[in-house]
């Protein structure tokens, strides 16, 4: 509760400072509307069916991307973490691909896939895959070797070892990777919607609002909604993680 109150106090302080800076004329109200205007615009937008459709489109793409990233990242992390030779052989290509920003891949994906939902989902999967995979690999390295050797001595197959021994032991690390990837995926989805000119989505809404009539209150309102969604996703997953893995200190060791 104390943490929540401090967070709210910081938010209120930031909004008050923003309002004062606008009201005294340090910045142009045309380009940076005060929060008193932006928050009213947010309220109006939440009653607009088309804007709600944009939110649903973004969140649906986000959810699909996270699920696919988990389905790829966890098995890949278990495999690479359990087979050192394979991990070494793929290290160069992984380290080459990992730093490439999503925005740099947008033109290529648009040419290959087009600007539909597949484009933003594919790039969101690409962006959010790495934290899941690397945290799973890291978790594999933290498993007590005695557990693995005991399972092998009992004649347990490699698949059974990975699914019955390794996966439960690495679960806190995997979950932390998922939490990190969830916010990364949302950023990627909104960014691609904006850059690719998608038909629907928060990114598309912000793009339309920033062109034509140039309603900067709408631009900031869409940005605020995206930020709130990201905060709620991260906070929700963090609380779930604390309940499921209250015995673990993995968050302090997470790999982004």
From TrEMBL:
<comment type="similarity">
    <text>Belongs to the binding-protein-dependent transport system permease family.</text>
</comment>
<feature type="transmembrane region" description="Helical">
    <location>
        <begin position="55"/>
        <end position="80"/>
    </location>
</feature>
<dbReference type="GO" id="GO:0055085">
    <property type="term" value="P:transmembrane transport"/>
</dbReference>
<keyword id="KW-1133">Transmembrane helix</keyword>
<dbReference type="GO" id="GO:0005886">
    <property type="term" value="C:plasma membrane"/>
</dbReference>
<feature type="transmembrane region" description="Helical">
    <location>
        <begin position="184"/>
        <end position="209"/>
    </location>
</feature>
<dbReference type="InterPro" id="IPR000515">
    <property type="entry name" value="MetI-like"/>
</dbReference>
<feature type="transmembrane region" description="Helical">
    <location>
        <begin position="216"/>
        <end position="233"/>
    </location>
</feature>
<dbReference type="Pfam" id="PF00528">
    <property type="entry name" value="BPD_transp_1"/>
</dbReference>
<feature type="domain" description="ABC transmembrane type-1">
    <location>
        <begin position="55"/>
        <end position="237"/>
    </location>
</feature>
<keyword id="KW-0812">Transmembrane</keyword>
<keyword id="KW-0813">Transport</keyword>
<protein>
    <submittedName>
        <fullName>ABC transporter permease</fullName>
    </submittedName>
</protein>
<feature type="transmembrane region" description="Helical">
    <location>
        <begin position="119"/>
        <end position="138"/>
    </location>
</feature>
<keyword id="KW-0472">Membrane</keyword>
<dbReference type="InterPro" id="IPR035906">
    <property type="entry name" value="MetI-like_sf"/>
</dbReference>
<keyword id="KW-1003">Cell membrane</keyword>
<feature type="transmembrane region" description="Helical">
    <location>
        <begin position="92"/>
        <end position="113"/>
    </location>
</feature>
């Amino acid at each position: 509760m104390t943490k929540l109150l401090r967070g709210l106090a910081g938010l209120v302080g930031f909004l008050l400072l923003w309002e004062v800076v606008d009201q005294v004329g340090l910045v142009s109200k045309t380009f940076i509307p005060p929060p008193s205007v932006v928050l009213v615009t947010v309220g109006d937008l939440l009653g607009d069916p088309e804007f709600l459709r944009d939110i649903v489109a973004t969140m649906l793409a986000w959810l699909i991307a996270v699920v696919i990233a988990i389905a790829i990242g966890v098995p890949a992390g278990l495999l690479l973490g359990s087979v050192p030779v394979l991990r070494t052989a793929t290290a160069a290509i992984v380290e080459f691909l990992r730093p490439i920003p999503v925005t740099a891949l947008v033109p290529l994906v648009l040419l290959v896939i087009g600007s539909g939902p597949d484009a933003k989902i594919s790039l969101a999967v690409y962006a959010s895959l790495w934290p899941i995979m690397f945290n799973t690999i890291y978790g594999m390295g933290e498993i007590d070797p005695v557990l693995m050797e005991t399972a092998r001595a009992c004649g347990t197959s490699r698949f059974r070892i990975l699914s019955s021994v390794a996966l439960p032991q690495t679960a806190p690390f995997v979950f932390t990777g998922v939490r990190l990837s969830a916010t990364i995926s949302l950023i990627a989805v909104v960014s691609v919607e904006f850059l690719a000119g998608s038909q629907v989505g928060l990114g598309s809404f912000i793009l339309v609002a920033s062109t034509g009539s140039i309603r900067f209150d709408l631009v900031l309102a869409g940005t605020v909604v995206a930020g709130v969604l990201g905060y709620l996703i991260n906070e929700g997953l963090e609380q779930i993680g604390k309940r499921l893995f209250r015995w673990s200190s993995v968050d302090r060791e997470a790999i982004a």
